[in-house]
Amino acid sequence: MESLDDSALSLAVFVPLVVAAAMLLVPRENETAHKLMALGATLATFAVGMLILARFDYGASDQLQFRVDAPWIDVINSRYLLGVDGISLPLLVLSMFVCVLVVVYSWNHFPEPHNPKAFLILILVLETGMNGTFVAQDLILFFVFFEVVLLPMYFMIGVWGGEQRQYAAIKFFLFTLFGSALMILSFLALYFSGGQTFSIQELVAVAADNIPRSTQLIIFGGLFMGFAIKVPMFPFHTWLPDAHTQAPTQGSVILAAILLKLGTYGFIRIAIPILPEAAMAWAPVIGGLAVVGIIYGALGCLAQSDMKRLIAFSSVAHMGFVMLGIATLTDFGINAAVFGMVAHGLITGMLFFVAGSVKDRFHTLELSRLGGLLLQAPRMGWILGFCAMASLGLPGLAGFWGEFPAILAAYSPAEGLSEALFRTYMVIAALGTVLAAGYLLWMLQRAAFGTPKPEFAEAPIADMHWPEYVAWVPMLVLILVLGIFPGLLFGLTDGAVGNALSSFGAGG
Amino acid sequence: MLVNQFLVLGAVLFSIGVYGVLARRNGVLVLMSIELILNAVNINLVALGALQGASGAVTGQVFALFVITIAAAEVGVGLAIVLLIYRNRASVDLDEVDLMKG
Amino acid sequence: MLENAWVIPTLTFVSFWLILFFGKRLPGHGAEIGIGALGLAFVLSCVAVVQWVDRPATEVVPHGTSEEVHGEEEEEHGAAGGQRGEDRQVVATAVETGGHGEETPIRSAVERNVTWFTIGDVEVTAGTAVDGLTVVMLFTVTLISLLVHVFSTNYMHGDVRFTYFFAALSLFTTGMLLLVVSSSTLQALFGWELMGLCSFMLIGHWWEKAENSNAAMKAFLTTRTGDVGLLVGIVTLFFAAGQTFDIALINERALTGAIGHTALVVGAVGLFIGVIGKSAQFPLHTWLPDAMAGPTPVSALIHAATMVVAGVYLVARLYGVFWEAFDIGAGGVNPIAVVGGITVLIAAALAFVQDDIKKVLAYSTVSQLGYMVMALGVGAWTAGIFHLFTHAFFKGLLFLGAGSVSHAVHSFDMKADMGGLRKYMPTTFVTFLIGSVALAGLFPLAGFWSKDEILVGAAENGYPVFELVGIVGAFLTAAYMTRCVYLTFFGEYRGHAHPHESPRPITIPLMVLAVFSVGAGLLNAPGVEKFFEITENRVFLLAGVEHHSFEVFPAVVSTVVVLAAIAFAYLLFFERRLPRGLTRRNALARSGYTLLTNKYYLDHLYTGVIVGSVKGAIARAAYWFNQKVIDGVVNAVGIAARRSGDWTYRHIDQAVVDGAVNGAGFGAEGFGGILRTIQTGRVQQYAALLFGAATVLALGLIIFV
C-alpha cells in the first residue's frame, strides 16, 4: 500500500490523460469502445479517489497528505509537487464524481455534431486538468493544469455548442486567458520577491515576511484578477451566461460544477495564505463585489426568459455567497465557502443536467413555451423542483450550508475588518436569499407547473431514461445527505481552513 | 586632403539614386537607381577611410569591395525577379505589382 | 419519552419517504402509512405528556426580579457580554445571586444534544429540549395532524396526487414537530423552512391552475421575506449570546443581561419580522387568505396546529429575548403588542365582507393569531400559548367542517351555493356550531377561558388599550361567525348540488375536535389551572412573567359583548330574512310585522345602515387597502424587481459591461484596420516611408543630439 499511497495522486491526475491518448488510436467508428474506455477511465480515477478517501488521515486533515515531491524544472526551481488536504480533497472527489456522471449521462446524449471519440477525449483531458489543479502544490504546476482546462472547454463550446457557439467560446477563452496572464505575472512576482521558490507551502512560510506590503497589494491584485474571472465575480462575469447557454449539457455541468471552483479554490489555496496582509486589505472590495454579485445575479435571473441562461446567472449569485464567505477571512466563512463550492457544484450541476434533458425533449428552453413538465415527465419535474429548492438554500439540503454560515460569518468578520461594512453585506446577502427564492420558484412555476402549451400538448415526451437515473440519483442523494449531516464536510475542511487562516491569529 | 568634394559627389549620387527609386516606375531602372545609392555609399566609405590613414584606407576599401559584391548579387536576384514579373505580366511597371497589399 | 423526543419527528419523516417510494403500490395508496405513523406519534406524544406531568418539580428558579435590578445587571454584565465558552452553570449562579425573589420549584426541561458539526472552536449541537410547552405542542400537533390525515382519506379520495398529498402532509408535520422539539435556533430554522416548503407544495397542490401556484408562490415568498429578518435575528443572537444557537442559553443570557441591549433589540426585531411573515401578522398577512387555494385539510393543518402558529411558538420559546428587548414587563406599548392588536382588528373587519367560507375562517385565523401575538406582547405568556392550544381545536374543527360542507355542495361560496344545510348535514352543523361558539368565546367553551386570560393579562400588566382591542375583537369575532353560520346553515338551500351528510372519516374527526373545543378550556379554569402548571418554565420564572388567573369582571364584560354581537348579527341577518319569509305566506303578517317592528326595526336600521355602512365601508376600505395597497406594493415590488432586473440586464450588463469587453476586441480590430491601409504592397511607397523615416530620424539626431 505504501507505493500506492505515493502514486495515488499521480494516478488520479494522469489516468484520464493516458486513456485519452489510447482512445486516439481507436477508430472513431467504434463508438461503444470509446464509451467503455471513457467510462473505465473515469471509474478507475474515481476508484483511486475512493481509495484516497479511505486512506486519508482525517485526524490530520490540515496536513498535506499523499505528498509527491520530485524535481521537474530545475532551472526555475519548480517541482512536481502534489498533495491533498481537507480543502482540496472534497473538491478533488467532487471532480472525479462529476466526471463519471457526465460520461454516464453522455451515453445517449451526444450533442451535434455527435463524434463521441473527440467529445469523450475532451472530457478526459478536462478531468486531468481539473484534478491536477486541485492537487498541485507548486505554482507553475498549478498554472499548467489551470490552463490545461481551457482548451478542451473551448472546443467543447465551440464545436458542440449552440447557435452562437463561436462567440461564446472565444469570449470564454479570451476572458480566462486575460486573467491567466495577470495570474502568471503574479506568480513570477512571488517567485522573485518571495525567495526563489514556487512551492505554495514554502511561499506561505516566507512570502509574508519577505514582500513589502505595497508589493503584496499589487501581487494580490493580479491573483485577484486571475481567480475572480474564473469564479466569476461581478463585473467579470459576462462570459459565463454566454458560455453556459451555448455549451452542450455536459460542458455546462462541468463548467458549473468544477471549473468555477478553480477560481475560489485559488483564493483559498494560494492568494489568502500567501498574502494575508493584502487579503486583509482587499477583503472589503471582494466582499462588496460579492454582495453586488448576489443581488445583481438575482436581478439578472429575473430578467431571463431562457431556462439555461437563468441557471447560469444564478451561478453568479451563488458564487457571490462563496466569495462573501471567503472575504470574511474567518473559519466560518471559509468553511462555508468550501461547502458552498461543493453544494453549488452538485446543485447547479443537477440543474444543468435537467435543463439539458428538457432541451432534448422540447428542443427549446424558452420559459414562455414550456409548462406542465410535471404532467408530461413527472419525475423530471419533481427533480427540477428538488434542485430549485436546494438551490434557493432550503435548510436540510446542501445549498443552505453554503449560504447560512457565510451570512453568519459576515456578522463578525476577521479582526481588522470593518464590522459595520460586513454587517451591511450580511443584510444585503440575506435579502438575496429572497430574490433567489423568487427567481427559482418563478422558473419552476413556468417550466413545471400549469399545463403544457398547445404546441407540445400532443408531443410524446419521455420521462427519465436509465442514464439519467444513474447520473442523477447519486447527486440528489448527496445533496440531501450533505444537507442533513453537514459535519461530513465541515469535519474534513475545518482543520485545513484553520491552517489556511493561521496567519490571521485566532482566525475568527 | 580635402574630403568635401567626395562627400558632395556621394550626396549627389545618393540623391539621384533616391529620386530614381521613388519616382521611376520601371523595375529595371529602380534597380539601377539602387546601384547608384550603393555606389554613393562606396565613395563615402573609401573617402572617409582614406582620411583615417593607411589602415583606415584599407578598411574602407575592403568595405567597399564587400558592398560591390553584395550589390552584384542583389542586382542578380533583383533582375531575375523583374524578369519573372515581366514574363508573367508582360510589364515591369512597379505600380501594378502590389501583391503584398495587406 | 422525554429524552427520546427526537423519535416523534423522525417517525413522520420516515413516513414521508415510505409514502413517497412505496405509497402508490399499497392498497390505501400510502394513507395507511401516514395514519399509522401519526397514530404512533400521537401515542408517544401522550406518553410524553404523562411523563412530563409525573415529572417531579425539582429545579429551583428564583422568581423574576424587578426592572431596576435588570438595569443594574445589564451594566455589570455589559463588559463580560458575549464571552465565549461561558458555562451555563456560571450564568445560572449569577442569576441566583443577582435575583432576590421567592423561590418556586418547577420541572426542569429535559435536554439532549449531540454534536452536529464543528467549525473552528465552535461546536454546533443538534438535539431536543422538552418542557411543558413542548409536550403541549407535541400533543396538539400530532392530534390535529392525525385527524386531518383521517379526514383526508375520504376528502381527497380519487385525487390525482392522493399519495403525494399524504407524503407532503407527513413532511409538513415533521417540520412542525422538528421546530417544537428543537433545542437550538438553527435547528428550529430547519423545521420552520421545511414547513415553508410543504406549504408551497400543498397550497399549490392543484398546480395545473395558475392561480393555485401563484398562491403557493405568494405564501412561500412572503414568509421567506420575513425569514430575512429571522436569519438576521438568529445570526445576531448567535454572536450576542457568545456563539451559541442554544435556545435555553440565549434566553438565560438575555434575561441576565449578558447580551447588550442593542444586539438584543436587533435580534428580537429580526426574529419578530420572521414571526410577522410566518404567523401572518399585519402587514404580511396577505398570503394567508390566498393560501385557501390549497385543499381544505391542508388549510386546517396550516391554520390550526402548524405553520402559522410556528411564529407564535417561536416568540413563546425565545420569550426571554423579547421580554428584555421590548421591556414587556414595563407596560405601555411595544411592537409585539401593537402588531398583534392591529392584526386582531383589521382581520376581523375583513372577515365580514367575505363570501367564501374558507376566507372568513382564514381572516378569523389571522385575527386570532393577532390575539396570541398580542397576548405575548402584553406579557400574558400563559394566556398566549393557552389560546394557541384552544384555538388549534376549534379552528381545526371549523376548517374541517367547512371541508365537510364543501364536500357536500362542491363549493365554498356561502351566498351562492349554501344555506339551510343544517337540515341536510346535522353532524356537521352541530360540530360547526360548537366550533363557532368556542371561537366567539362563550362560557364554558374553550375560547372563553383563553380569551379571558388574555384580557386579564392585558389589564393587569398595564396594557389597558390592548384590553379594549381584545374586547372589540371579541365583538367582531362573534358577529362574523354568526353571519357565517347563518349563511351556511340557515335559510334556504341556494345551491344546485344534492347536499348530504359526509361519511364517517369526515365526521369522526369533527366530533373529536368538538369534544376538545368544549373541554380544552377547562384545563385552565379557576381552581384547575393544570395548563399553567404544566407549561410553567424556567424562562417564565426568570423573566418574572406574572400569571393571572381567571377574573369575573372581564369575563362578564366579554360575555356581554359577545352576546351583544351575536344578537346584533342575529338581528342583522336572521331577522331581516324573517319578515320576508313570513310575508311570502301572509300579507297580514307582513304589514303587521312591518308595523310592529317598524320603529324598532327602523332604529336598528338607522344604526344598522349608518354603522353598517361605515363599518362596511371601513371594512371594504381595509380590504381595498389590503388588496390594492399592501398587495399592490408586494406586486409592485415584484414587478419593479423584474423591471429593474430587465433594465440592468439590458442597459448595464449587455450594454456597458459586455460592451466594454466587446469594445476591447473591436479596438484591437480597428487599430489593425488602420495599419492595414499603409500596407499597399507598393514597393516604392515602402521605400518612400523608409527614406522619410530615415530623414526624420536624421533630423532628430541633428537637432537633439
Q: How many angstroms does the end-to-end distance of chain C come to?
A: 101 Å
Low-confidence stretches of chain C: 65-101, 578-583, 595-608, 610-615
Biggest interface in this structure? Answer: A-C, 56 and 50 residues
Unreliable residue stretches of chain A: none
SSE order of chain A, one letter for each helix or strand: HHEEHHHHHHHHHHHHHHHHHHH
Structure description:
The complex is a heterotrimer of chains A (508), B (102) and C (705). Chain A has 508 residues and is mainly alpha-helical. Chain A has helices spanning 2-25, 31-55, 88-106, 116-135, 139-148, 150-160, 165-193, 200-210, 213-230, 239-246, 249-274, 276-302, 307-328, 331-362, 373-376, 378-391, 398-411, 419-448, 454-457, 466-484, 487-500; strands at 65-73, 78-84. In chain A, helix 14 packs antiparallel against helix 16 (378-391) and helix 14 packs antiparallel against helix 17 (398-411). The N and C termini of chain B lie far apart (51 Å). Chain B is mainly alpha-helical and 102 residues long. Chain B is elongated. In chain B, helix 2 (27-51) runs antiparallel to helix 3. Chain C is mainly α. Chain C is 74% helix and 4% strand. Chain C has helices at residues 7-22, 31-54, 67-80, 88-98, 132-155, 162-181, 185-203, 210-240, 247-255, 261-278, 287-290, 296-304, 308-317, 319-325, 335-351, 357-377, 381-409, 414-417, 421-424, 426-440, 446-460, 464-489, 504-519, 530-535, 538-543, 552-585, 587-678, 683-704, and strands at 59-62, 103-106, 110-119, 122-130. A two-stranded antiparallel sheet of chain C has the order 1-2. Chain C is globular, with a radius of gyration of 32 Å. Chains in contact: A-C, B-C. At the A-C interface, helix 7, helix 12, helix 14, helix 17 and helix 18 of A face strand 3, helix 7, helix 8 and helix 27 of C.
Which tags fit this structure?
A: 508 residues; two-stranded antiparallel ribbon; 3% strand; B: 102 residues; mainly alpha; Helix Hairpins; 3 helices; 0% strand
